[in-house]
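Chapter summary example.
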Amino acid sequence: MLLYPFLEVTPRYFGAFPAGWPALLSLGTIAGFPWLVNPLIGASLPILTWLLAKEFLSENTAKLSAAVMALSPGVLILSSSHMSQTSVLAALLFAVVVISRNRDSWLIWGLAGLALGYVENARPYDAILLGAPLYLIAIYTLAKGRDWLIKIVSLTVPIIAGGALLLYDNYLTTGSPLIFPINQWFDAWVSDMPASPGCNRLGFGDDVGCFATLGSLGHTPAKALQIASDTAVRLDSLLLGPPLGLAIALIGLVSLRGRTLFLALATLLICVGGYSLYWSPGIAYGARLWHNTYIVLPMLVAVGLESVRSKTSFKASASWLIIIFTVGFGAPGRLSELGNDYWCVNGDIGEALDTRGINTGVLFLEGGPQLQTGWPELGVEEFICDPLISSSNGFYLDDPNGEGLLVRHALPNIEQTRAYLAALHPESEAWLIKSPGQTDASQLYQLTDNGWELSKY
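The structure predicted for these 457 residues follows.
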């Protein structure tokens, strides 16, 4: 009755994603502000960028890098979501800052290990792509300093514990420590589709990919190149607002020298090359699969601006004015789609129920004609709304303890509805909203002895 994508119910009931991000998000849920978790984490990104940039660049360029991170529409969008990319970027950035600054405190190195252990349990592939190289660099850095043993132990123990937790979570959900829930979910999802089991794996082949991309099933190097090109276009439009953000970053990249150039280039190649093996375009929320390129992109943009400015007669403040003007001019168009109707969600039903004092009983949502919408600025040309996602999000209205309002998909007819209520909720009032998310979503019905009676709100 309560359907949700990426939820597995057989043989166990579990979500398809690793437990790290839900565990972190649960802290906000416990506090009553789940929406505040990602914005708070996002607020740390400019600070971490500034701390990292100071190790390689001038103070003014470091501050400019932090400003780019703070104002980038791509960062703001994912920091306004319930997605895990912002937390993973912050964790990786924190680890990079600790390694680059080579702090003396073993406790700081333990926190860096904890950050990398979190990445293992939030986005395991990112832990392989970036967490593993960072760990090796950290070991190399520590081996040359004093008190190296206790620092390496402090760094390593949380990482081992994080890996063990991930494998244990896999075992609890799928029965095998080496089978990830998302792969099992996809295998069940494609059981009556052309795609075959194991379609969610990395690499190339006719049987890689769980739905058609670029017109056909399968993943090829040519598709990977096209997906990368499309992702770069989305990233370019979201980096500063208007296009050419990546061009400025490229100027910054070629302006670097030595170790700084190598580390920046390696980060970009790892992020882009690693996800070229993944079949899904990952179009939602813009260039989210490349979000970890923000480890270096704000610094590259700042260096690029300073490089161009240094060849002119403009003062250092010119770079700041360019950033403020560029983002101020271009960001509103990128952020305009983050209104109340993003992903079909708005507060209409929730507000109407609060106004009428309806907080108990069973609320049925009937989808009616499926609403199709899109957010082209964020890479989503078309999206079909589900009634439990539409209109203030039925998942948030639903009381998981079963004592308040219960939200369900509507049943085909009133006979089945009465039978369902008699079997499971015999004493509860029942409500029905037809076509949530549609233009006629202002109709609320209450179940009476005579059937559904319309009640305008």
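To summarize the output: The chain has a mean pLDDT of 87.
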